[in-house]
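User: Please go through the entry that follows and flag anything odd:
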Amino acid sequence: MEDVEVIADPAAAVVALEPIRSRLLAELAEPASAATLAARLGIARQKLNYHMRALEAHQLVREAGKRQWGGLTERLLVASAASYVISPKALGPVAIDSGRGGDRLSASYLIALGARMVDEVSDLLRRSRAADKHLATLSLDTEIRFRSAADRAAFSNELIQSVTTLVARYHDESAPGGRTHRLVLVAHPLPHESKMEEPSCQ
């Protein structure tokens, strides 16, 4: 089982998003039989088998083995991944595209960058798995609470200057055997945890 699977096929996305099938994928984090799932979820066996066939048809679940029970042979099924992400590609021509321009300081553009990251990294991950190689990535996730909008602006300026300096130091367009990497830095306010929380800096 993979840690995460990105679903790019529209039909597979529709299957995974159906409420009962989504619940089945969560339950199948560990191998289980259709009979076990039917009893656990209180779903008629015939109805459950219908949903399981749909999941199998789109490779969202697979057989994990068989076992003998009550004189019968049961198939054990397991989800293809522990969790799933729907790729923007599943939306076809209406999918968000960072290359369409727009305000690069807008929330919409930030979302477009995130969507592009999902597409690019998931494609690279599929290739690395097929080649049985490790995909080298770097992620940094932290939080910072600014005292004021002025401090936030000052931080942004210093960050831009620092990154520009580092890129200039390490970027070599003509390096033989070199490989271009994408660097994306984003910052956004955290969602309010409650209505009593202080408003964020504007």
